[in-house]
Amino acid sequence: MRASGVALQSGPMRIALAQINPTVGDIAGNAELIRRDLRRAADAGADLAVFPELAIIGYPPKDLLLKPDVIDRCRAAVEELASECTQVMAVIGLPVWSERNQGRTLHNSAAVCVGGAIRSWHHKSLLPTYDVFDELRYFEPGPRLDLTPLPQRDGDREINLGISICEDLWGAAEHTDRRIYHDNPIDELAAAGAKVFVNVSASPFVAGKHPKRMEIMSALAARHGLPVLFCNQVGGNDELVFDGRSCAFDSRGAVIAEAAGFEEDLIVIEIDGEKRQGSRGESQLTSPDRNSGAGSTLSEEHEVHDALVLGLRDYARKCGFKDVVIGLSGGIDSAVTAAVAVAALGPDRVRGVAMPSRFSSEGSVTDARLLAEHLGIAFHVVPIEEPHRAMEATVQPVFDDVLGNQNRPGVTEENIQARLRGVILMSLSNKFGSLLVTTGNKSELAVGYCTLYGDMAGGFSVLSDVPKLLVYRLARWINDNEHSPLREQLGRAVVPEDTITKPPSAELRPDQTDQDSLPPYEQLDEIIERYVEDEQSARTIIAETGFDAETVLRIVRLIDLNEYKRKQAAPGLKITGRAFGFGRRMPIAQRYDPRHGVG
User: Which parts of 182-292 are beta strand (E)?
Assistant: First the structure.
């Protein structure tokens, strides 16, 4: 049966996966993105356009969902879009009011728009509450899973779409270490007679995650003998980056099409009985020189770099910042942060500032200046020697009065330097309206090797979930890899070699290095990964690594003690399985003892 107002030509159904970059809360702007890709899908000859999860409001909307006006406006916007779906059908994600009189008031839903109206609704069944997800705070699980029969191009046949939403796809027991849901929506859709699985998603980026996605979808397609189409959101929203990489699998589990990673894209797939093939054809709407579909084969350094670039670019754009300011110490962290900023925004929108003290080496300023020259960014040197001495003299009488002859220079005096640098950078941020980007990495943030209101001062953190060793690998990749956009653009290495090879140091006292206070980063990063990401106990870490027990206990204790600092840190981009941020909810005032069972 042909749907009213939908003109289909003969031949297989053509389905477009519209990988858009929504802005959270910008309902009108997101509607325009959807409208744009409905036109593109029509131009590409598609019969159906599929959009990501909660596409009309963007993911994650968090407590915007508690505002009734937001839900009503989302519904009105999708109804208006549905009225325009006369040439192309659409699946659009949005929050809707639940019709139940029990449970939570909302569903995470997908509207199927056909012939100028919403034909059916599909509600998300599996609602994640782990890591960064908190969907049970807002949504009620869908009451049932229904199929959507849509006409094919011959007009006499319909094809049953089994529509699921993000987490519904991850409920298959054989693809997880432990099944956390009682239901398996995909199996239920298959049993009901689905002929094509369509999953609308907002699946955040984690390094190495995409091959797992591909494995799950390939196995589902092969097990049920049905195609699987996956449409994912792309873009940065606060701490989360969405990598896109929407894809399609045929009934044997083979990849037939894959969208670009870390950018908007639209791909078209043909579905007709046993004929299932991917096509770009006239749907080639993005840059023709892009290596489409390469997302699943990127190295860790490549995909992390692209995630950081996209995350910073979108945070600045969506928050209204035109440029950024970065403190350049001559060290590896600020160098990689500046390189990411230039790749994200361009050199004319990045300002670097060196702030040497009497403990800064001559090479630090030289390396910072050389980096700025390589990147082509504005560069300023603001010495802090004079204000540092003035500040020490200002507080010295109070220290002497309270401590008497016990007063000795120490960490307090060192941190004054970091806090003066924070004051300078924040002054430039205020004066120029620039976003101050902090440069600390995950290893430092984990153990508190950072200064509150000093190097932690700022509005956004690029490397806060990037371990120190990965920072070094990123620097090498930026310098040497043929896929590095800065290497290709500049034709030379970006990060000075001395910056990469010299021992890392905060330079807050003479001859200081990180390893004065911390174990080698090879050990530190592994302890952090095991304790924070894998939730291993100190006893297990010691047993499995052979690391010195005293070192392990000291590091895990530092991680626990410095939760108060991390609660005051700038929001940062998540790229690992467990980042410091809203996905890790640890108490500050607590007395958990990690020494239990050791010794």
Answer: 196-201, 228-232, 234-237, 240-243, 247-249, 255-258, 265-272, 275-279
Single pTM value for the model: 0.91
Measured distance CA(127)–CA(135) in Å, rounded: 5
* Helix, strand, coil percent content, the chain, rounded in steps of 5: 40, 20, 40
H helices within 442-572, ranges in order? 442-447, 468-480, 485-490, 497-501, 521-528, 538-545, 549-561, 563-567
Residue 516 burial class via C-beta count within 10 angstroms: exposed 0-12, middle 13-18, buried 19 and up: exposed
What is the number of other CB atoms lying within 10 angstroms of the CB of residue 390? Answer: 10
In the numeric block, which tokens belong to residue 311? 């995350």
- Provide the annotated active-site residues: 53, 124, 166
Q: Which CATH architecture has domain 308-512?
A: 3-Layer(aba) Sandwich (3.40)
13-298, CATH topology level:
Nitrilase/N-carbamoyl-D-aminoacid amidohydrolase (3.60.110)
CB 288: neighbour CB atoms within 10 A? Answer: 8
- Span(s) in the chain for CATH 3.40.50.620: 308-512
**pLDDT digits over 558-579, tens only?**
999 999 999 999 999 999 999 9
**Three-class SS state of 164:** strand
Over residues 183-204, the pLDDT tens digits come to 788 888 999 999 999 999 999 9
Residue 352 and residue 328 in contact, taking contact as beta carbons nearer than 8 Å: yes
Measure the CA–CA gap between 542 and 553, rounded to whole angstroms. Answer: 9
Strands (E), 126-195: 147-151, 158-165
Cβ burial of 228 (10 Å; 0-12, 13-18, 19+) is buried
pLDDT digits (tens, 9 = 90+) for 357-392: 888 787 789 999 999 999 999 999 999 999 999 999
**Is 85:48 a contact under the CB 8 Å cutoff?**
no
d(CA 48, CA 46): 6
List, by residue range, all CATH 3.60.110.10 domains of the chain: 13-298
- Identify the three-state secondary structure at position 136: helix
Let me know: does 507 contact 361? Beta carbons within 8 Å. Answer: yes
